[in-house]
Design brief:
By secondary structure, the chain is mainly α. It is built from seven helices and no strands. Pfam families: TB2_DP1_HVA22.
């Protein structure tokens, strides 16, 4: 019969711990002994980047891989930022998600045309990586400060008015739906 394990006794698994465990398991294969040498690690890293790039150009499922790259790491970092006490990291990742959302909306309208270009998924992946890179010239900050923020400030009153109307309409629809559901339940 299994014994109860308290929270203090549970080992907290982190994503990096799991990646380290997988990497150690893969590298324990004797066929990869040459790759384990430190002098070969740049070849492994850059070779992996080249293979990923080629796959994003020619591979099946490149859209999924590109979207996973643009989502998984930023989502993980966003959760870590929410759990930290610093405000700067929250702002950094909120900026990323605003740019990501704008890009996703724009991409919705142009995706049908752009996805036919052979380097589209590679270019999109590079764009998303640029947007979350931890550098001073990262794409999210550049796009937000040069495009989104000025446009928002210029049209803030119109946006607030439109959002107020939309909120009022949503509330009306929600009230009508609630009333209809209540009446339907009352009649049954």
């Amino acid at each position: 019969m299994p014994t109860a394990v308290t929270k203090d006794q549970q080992e907290e698994f982190k994503i990096l711990d799991i990646v380290d465990w997988m990497l150690k398991d893969i590298l324990s294969d004797a066929r990869l002994s040459e790759l384990k040498k430190e002098k070969n690690w740049p070849y492994v890293k850059y070779g992996g980047i080249v293979l990923l790039s080629l796959y994003l150009v020619f591979g099946y499922g490149a859209q999924l891989i590109c979207n996973v790259i643009g989502f998984i790491y930023p989502a993980y970092c966003s959760i870590k930022a929410l759990e930290s006490l610093k405000k700067e990291d929250d702002t950094r990742w909120l900026t990323y998600w605003v740019v990501f959302a704008l890009f996703s909306v724009c991409e919705f309208f142009s995706d049908l045309l752009l996805s036919w270009f052979p380097f589209y998924w590679l270019a999109k992946c590079m764009f998303l990586v640029w947007c979350f890179l931890p550098v001073s010239w990262n794409g999210s900050d550049v796009i937000y400060n040069r495009v989104i923020r000025p446009a928002f400030i210029k049209h803030e009153k119109e946006i607030d008015t439109a959002m107020s109307k939309v909120t009022d309409k949503i509330n009306e629809v929600a009230d009508a739906a609630t009333k209809a559901a209540f009446d339907a339940a009352k009649n049954d």
